[in-house]
User: Which sequence fits this backbone?
């Protein structure tokens, strides 16, 4: 039986007797499950948990939620077709999902065209809410810009003069580097950027890159590498002693998806954004953590939180709108405040970006495992550009 | 760049070159003897990595490496005996399709067996640290790798020059049919060569684990690198592969050292294009012996019978009435199928009648799509103008690239098309301001009167049917006959006054035009376009469609496109491990229907 069957069943069981006669609300979910399995399997478990909780509590507006989940093939062309299928054949009321930025942008564009609300759960690109933002698209995760901005105060505090940049050569990496350059230069006048390495995504030639960075003799390095690139970079850098006298700031490296693979190679003292799940002791997070572990016998990754909060966004929007009409959903989502495992967030009416934050801290090793220490929660609302700038970018 | 850092980058280049050489040597060996374009070579490399990472905690790093390599070698022997051996009688391209299916299956197997997370292997015991060289620290393990390359090269050299088996391998590489005629047991020879090639791939993978994590995407990255090295070095030439690996490894290291890291995205393809333009058979390759024997000659495509024409007309008519019976998603899916059918037929025009294998046909599809997007969004053109003018961009590229490509033949030609496609891809990927970079262009929607699904479906239907009909018609015009003459016997064709190169060039442009039309229609049907439209996977999809349908049949590519698109759409919905399912379906079809889907129709017609 495929997942869809399971969830119809789960929904039906949960609601038998109460509101079983009402048709379930159908939500279309699409993601690149086979292209980015390390991030998206936990993500799927996240929304599955949320779905079970929502339906066990009686669904929304007296109706069960049904999620119709699809593989989007990892390319915009296929994702657009899958989204069309969800809209026209499955008659879903809302769309959610996508991982890579270009796929997210393509689906968001289609959603605007078909006037269907789309919750972009994972994509980090700034463009999805700014340059290419549209009325029907809302994004959950803190964007590239926001996460860079969260690291900048620490970077400026160190007062390092010579900086080198290293980032994967595609939009996420380029915009991360550009934002960092701009924000740090503003925060610390006189800062110098002495080298810039943009290896192809997933194929960093780590030995040569580490050597080139060392040759530039930077005081500090800003990196936007992740996944396999990050692991290669860390190992080569460790062996070659690049990090011994150099401060490093690495976007995303504290997320369990990436951090857990580093084990005893985990470099100490790096400043990162991430998710120290073991140590977060807020009531919202504790509830989530216990439920997740009970359901899956596994610990949550950042993807789990994103999937969980994305489906709750859907449920809360439907509740607030009191139905499935797209225009009323947009009105409901604009300014929607809701609770997540990371605390309360708000979907800004201004640009449809949620104020979900991230944890900023330093890496360390404990018993051969990487952990985050000295961390604090950075509230996303505090790391946005000025409203006027956002309006200018959105062109609406 | 100081002298010290130049020395270190040189050493870095050597270390990468050694790694590249190990994979490429196996691929080159396999191709030289069996003529199999082994797409699954990168998958074997990946298995070597995962195997070594999994074994290392149990048997120790230094035992894990040879054990993983041997296991992959054994798997290679098994694959050859159970699968590829059945296909030697069929056309060589079919083996390519079979190995593509293996890529899909092995990927899903790896995901199932080891899970989705990257696995970083241990450092090599005894070689964990670094040594001081010219004031910098250089990993000991990289020095070990630098030594590995020449050792393997020497070992292979001894095997090939110093043993009877090697003599047979060299004989088969030079002239397979002659070796066969002289009584060399091909089955054993091919089997052992494939096993050795697989072992080298596994070894290459296993040796990488201290340097990079085992990931699920490594297979396709490695295969493209390995192909480039093999082709630059000259197919079947082991020293050539070594030289090419050295060249590419060093160029990459110095690109990074000199601050041109963005260029590493595409540098190997630029090197390959330059080498192939200057030396059509690679650095140390030789002109391949002509293939004779089974699968060498294609039966001529006969004029379709009256009943076949009637059947095709009935299909066309049925497509016209679909919107009356069913709306919504059926039309969306059919629009995709039609576009890909046009794309596949244009590729078939090159591969079949013109006899030019292309690994980079997506370039023309993608240029058509980008042309449409750029004209509409940046040029301010209307949709109609954009749709009409966009394919001209593809034509222009085909004119330029075709001129170089028709000077080559066989896999060299195919790899040059790939090199050009990758260069175009990297431009689209990097040129943020103009092409939108990796995100691509967004908001390419058709004008109001065409915005409905039905209207767009009809336009697509008309254009695609007309395009397919035009290409088929041309095959029976003098131009088509001249092309086929040039394919079957270039010498005789030249002798009777056909300018074979000019004909092939024209065919290249003609096929590019229709791929461009398909691309332009695709852009407007999706509303956005990104570099993936001209990336390697799109080219491979086209190949798979053509080969599934049957390269020796006329209508085959259409059925292949329909089946493959439908499979991707429906299987991915029903199965978690849908890639493996698609791979299994392809394998079944390859074994059961070596002539492709089109051959069913032909068998019926000839009865």
Assistant:
């Amino acid at each position: 039986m495929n997942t869809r069957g399971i969830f119809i069943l789960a929904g039906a069981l949960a609601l038998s007797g109460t509101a079983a006669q009402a048709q379930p609300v159908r939500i279309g979910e699409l993601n690149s499950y086979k292209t980015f399995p390390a991030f998206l399997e936990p993500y799927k478990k996240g929304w599955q948990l949320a779905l079970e909780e929502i339906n066990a509590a009686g669904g929304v507006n007296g109706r069960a939620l049904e999620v119709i989940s699809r593989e989007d093939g990892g390319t915009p062309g296929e994702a657009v077709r899958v989204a069309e299928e969800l809209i026209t054949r499955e008659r879903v009321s809302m769309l959610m999902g996508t991982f890579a930025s270009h796929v997210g942008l393509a689906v968001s564009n289609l959603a605007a065209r078909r006037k269907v609300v789309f919750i972009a759960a994972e994509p980090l690109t700034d463009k999805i809410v700014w340059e290419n933002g549209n009325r029907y698209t809302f994004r959950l995760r803190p964007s590239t810009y926001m996460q860079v901005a969260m690291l900048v105060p620490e970077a400026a505090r160190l007062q390092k003069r010579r900086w080198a940049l290293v980032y994967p050569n595609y939009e996420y990496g380029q915009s991360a580097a550009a934002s960092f350059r701009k924000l740090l230069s503003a925060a610390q006048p006189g800062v110098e950027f002495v080298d810039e390495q943009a290896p192809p995504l997933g194929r960093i030639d780590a030995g040569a890159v580490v050597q080139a960075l060392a040759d530039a003799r930077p005081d500090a390095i800003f990196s936007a590498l992740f996944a396999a690139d990050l692991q290669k970079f860390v190992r080569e850098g460790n062996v070659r002693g690049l990090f011994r006298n150099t401060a490093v700031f690495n976007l995303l490296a504290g997320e369990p998806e990436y951090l857990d693979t580093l084990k005893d190679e985990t470099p100490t003292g790096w400043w990162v954004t991430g998710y120290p799940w073991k140590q977060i002791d807020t009531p919202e997070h504790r509830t989530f953590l216990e439920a997740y572990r009970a359901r899956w016998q596994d610990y949550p990754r950042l993807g789990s939180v994103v999937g969980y909060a994305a489906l709750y966004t859907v449920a809360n929007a439907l509740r607030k709108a009191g139905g499935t009409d797209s225009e009323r959903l947009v009105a409901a989502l604009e300014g929607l405040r809701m609770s997540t495992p990371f605390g309360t967030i708000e979907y800004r009416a201004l640009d449809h970006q949620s104020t979900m934050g991230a944890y900023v801290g330093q890496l360390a090793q404990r018993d051969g495992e990487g952990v985050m220490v000295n961390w604090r929660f950075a509230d996303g609302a505090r790391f946005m550009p000025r409203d006027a700038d956002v309006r200018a970018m959105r062109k609406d | 760049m100081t002298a010290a850092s130049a020395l270190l980058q040189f050493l870095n280049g050597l270390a990468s070159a050694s790694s590249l050489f190990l994979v490429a040597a196996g691929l080159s060996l396999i191709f030289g003897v069996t003529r199999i374009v082994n797409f699954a070579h990168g998958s074997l490399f990946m298995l070597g990595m995962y195997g070594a990472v999994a074994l290392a905690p149990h048997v120790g790093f230094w035992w894990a490496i040879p054990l993983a390599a041997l296991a992959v070698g054994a798997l290679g022997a098994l694959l050859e005996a159970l699968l590829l051996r059945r296909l030697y009688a069929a056309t060589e391209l079919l083996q390519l399709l079979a190995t593509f299916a293996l890529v899909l299956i092995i990927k899903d197997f790896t995901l199932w067996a080891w899970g989705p997370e990257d696995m970083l292997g241990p450092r090599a015991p005894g070689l964990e640290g670094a040594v001081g060289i010219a004031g910098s620290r250089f990993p000991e393990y990289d020095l070990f790798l630098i030594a590995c390359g020449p050792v393997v090269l020497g070992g292979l050299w001894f095997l090939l020059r110093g043993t009877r088996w090697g003599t047979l391998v060299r004989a088969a590489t030079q002239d397979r049919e002659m070796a066969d005629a002289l009584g060399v047991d091909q089955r054993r020879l091919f089997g052992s060569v494939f096993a050795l090639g697989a072992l080298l791939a596994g070894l290459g993978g296993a040796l990488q684990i201290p340097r990079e994590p085992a990931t699920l995407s490594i297979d396709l990255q490695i295969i493209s690198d390995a192909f480039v090295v093999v082709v630059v070095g000259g197919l079947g030439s082991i020293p050539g592969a070594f030289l090419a690996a050295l060249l590419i490894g060093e160029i990459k290291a110095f690109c990074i050292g000199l601050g041109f890291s963005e260029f590493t995205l595409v540098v190997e393809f630029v090197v390959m294009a330059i080498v192939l333009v200057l030396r059509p058979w690679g650095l140390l390759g030789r002109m391949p012996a002509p293939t004779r024997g089974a699968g060498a000659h294609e039966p001529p495509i006969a004029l379709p019978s009256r009943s076949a024409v009637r059947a095709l007309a009935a299909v066309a008519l049925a497509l016209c009435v679909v919107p009356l019976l069913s709306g919504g998603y059926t039309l969306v899916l059919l629009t995709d199928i039609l576009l890909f059918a046009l794309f596949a037929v244009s590729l078939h025009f090159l591969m079949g009648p013109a006899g030019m294998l292309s690994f980079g046909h997506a370039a023309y599809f993608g240029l058509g799509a980008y042309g449409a997007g750029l004209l509409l969004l940046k040029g301010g053109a209307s949709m109609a103008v954009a749709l009409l003018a966009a394919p001209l961009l593809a034509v222009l590229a085909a004119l330029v690239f075709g001129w170089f490509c028709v000077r080559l033949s066989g896999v060299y030609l195919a790899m040059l098309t790939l090199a050009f496609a990758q260069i175009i891809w990297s431009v689209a990927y990097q040129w943020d301001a103009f092409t939108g970079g990796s995100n691509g262009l967004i908001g390419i929607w058709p004008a109001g009167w065409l915005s409905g699904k039905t209207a767009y479906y009809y336009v697509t239907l008309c254009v695609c049917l007309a395009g397919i009909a035009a290409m088929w018609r041309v095959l029976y015009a003098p131009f088509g006959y001249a092309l086929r003459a040039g394919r079957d016997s270039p010498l005789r064709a030249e002798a009777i006054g056909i300018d074979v190169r000019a004909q092939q060039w024209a065919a290249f442009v003609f096929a590019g035009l229709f791929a461009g039309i398909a691309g332009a229609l695709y852009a407007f049907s999706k509303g956005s376009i990104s570099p993936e439209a001209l990336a390697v996977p799109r080219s491979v999809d086209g190949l798979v469609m053509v080969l599934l349908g049957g390269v020796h049949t006329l209508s085959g590519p259409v059925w292949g496109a329909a089946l493959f698109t439908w499979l991707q759409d429906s299987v991915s919905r029903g199965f978690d491990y849908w890639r493996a399912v698609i791979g299994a379906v392809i394998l079944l079809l390859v074994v059961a229907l070596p002539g492709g889907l089109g051959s069913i129709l032909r068998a019926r017609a000839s009865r």
